[in-house]
Prior knowledge:
Blueprint: E1 2-8, E2 11-16, E3 27-36, H1 39-47, E4 49-50, E5 53-54, E6 64-72, E7 84-87, E8 90-91, H2 97-100, E9 111-112, E10 126-130, E11 134-136, H3 143-162, E12 169-173, H4 177-188, E13 193-198, H5 201-209, E14 214-217, H6 223-230, E15 235-240, H7 245-254, E16 255-263, H8 276-279, E17 285-288, H9 296-304, E18 314-319, H10 323-331, E19 339-343
Parallel strand pairs: 12-13, 12-15, 13-14, 15-16, 16-17, 18-19
Antiparallel strand pairs: 1-2, 3-6, 3-10, 3-19, 4-5, 6-7, 7-11, 8-9
Helix pairs in contact: 3-4, 3-9
Amino acid sequence: xxxxxxxxxxxxxxxxxAAPRVERADDVLIRLDTIGVCGxxxxxxxxxxxxxxxxxFPFAVGHECAGTVADAGPDAGGLKPGTRVAVDPLVVCGRCxxxxxxxxxxxRNQKFLGCPGQIEGSMAELLVMPARxxxxxxxxxxxxxxxMVEPLSIGLWAQKLAGQTAGRTIAILGCGPIGLCVLQxxxxxxxxxxxxxxxxxxxxxxxxxxxxDWAANAGKVDVAAELAALAPDGVALVFECAxxxxxxxxxxxxxxxxxxxxxxxxxxxxxxxxxxNFYRRKELRVxxxxxxxxxxxxAIELIASGRANVDPQITHHFTLDQxxxxxxxxxxxxxxxxxxxxxxxx
Length: 346
């Protein structure tokens, strides 16, 4: 089968490799149809690492994917050949203290699809995953939408960590796919006021048409001044989806006393700082967000019901042979790209 490997910084090579097969009783072999290019994949593509997770080339990245079951072991929980599925890229042990406490996203023995030293990624024609990481999707759901289940599930987990979002004032700083999925999640949870920012005009426009009450290019306006006029008492919640020092600083300025910052964006460096003039004096809370913690079924339901509209985010399609082109486009933010999809059959 064909598989796309990172063979160096900003270098992808398509190789022919042996096809995986069902070996364990709970294995599911998936014939992949569509794979998403995620921002975390881009860290490995641009720099070869995220923090202490360093790629040893060659390595296959990719974790947002969907397809059809081709084969399954006897303990695959009813997943049969022909079943259309989305993939939860997190594989957990189910036995450690974190799993038993309902925190599978911080499982001490976790393995994540496309993460160095854990599981090779999904940039291939076929993929084997344990049945608990494979979720059936309705026939009405496209494979593009099924790929978006993974980022939307992160948005749902962030919303759940924030608690009550209905009736509150919220800022989303960074309107890439994750920020836009957070927007969908908080709007689906109940009526709220959302202010959104990004540095790309096309993403600002997309935030407006998918539910933001106000959106602006942070490179063209003074975000703190604008929000001081719109929300004089400050916003209750900030979802930081850019992974940048500047947005961390903006959060401290615009949050109301007692407000909460939820950090979802992955910074390019391991350290960020907080301006304690704001964070201490306002007694602000900071909550990090780690993956999706069991929210994949909820994300499927939200998309299937039409309560979340992820289609506008899907802007580009490529074939597996065009993986290098796809990654270059997303890495360089060219041509108005938001979410690029790689379709195997094309």
